[in-house]
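The authors assume throughout that readers already know how a fold can be written as discrete tokens. The format is easy to grasp once an entry is in front of the reader. For illustration, here is how one protein appears when written out as sequence plus structure tokens:
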Amino acid sequence: MAFYAKKSKNKMAKIINSKIIISIYIILSLFTSCHKTSTIQKESINIGQMNFLELLKYSYESRNISNNSNTINILNDSIIQYSNNCLKIQELTIINDSHQNIDWRFEKTEYCPITSEALLFEVVINDSNGIIAEGNPATISDLKRLADGYIFSDSAINNAQTSMIIESKYFGKYKTSKIISQITIYVDKKNGLSSNTWKTLFKVLSELKTVTNKKKNELSIRKWGKNFNSLSFDKRIDVSQIIGSRISIVFVPIVPLN
């Protein structure tokens, strides 16, 4: 009798423990679900408050693009507004003295000024998400090598048409290239760009930004033996002025054939 009573108590204890475990699991699940919902709502609110250029930078930095993303709809609505004219966006370096920080942002020009081809390393993203670099088919992995060899070549730096002199605190009069990268994208006037095209744009942008970041590091190491991010704020400003922001994006409207 005592044996059965003991067995019954053990069984009851197991049931109680199981209920406790299930309750804890449910509470944790609800907490996780609420946290995810809160995060999604917060992100949605932030996206809704951004202008086109802020959202473009945010999407690039977070790679927040999916096939059914609301972000794509907002980006496409913005570029379709310029369907009668091409839209040019320029990368700009932002120097924040109070926080001793160097960042970047996009600035838009509502028309596309004519720039000498000699001053451009052009990458065209076509409808099938293929890439043309300087008139030739290329892959994403080709871009760093091609851009570096074109923009910062000895011939570009020593050619009067493609070079410029920068007055610098630490480097004095420094000769560098004034060639920039231009990403050209043809935009369907009715539907904008597909999610794959946006993703390709961000991959191309990443490769081209890597080229300028690499040059900043090379210049910093050659002068001070340190990577760019390890330099003091005033030295980072100097290097940034020499290498500069060198990327523009041009959205060109087209009428689809079908």
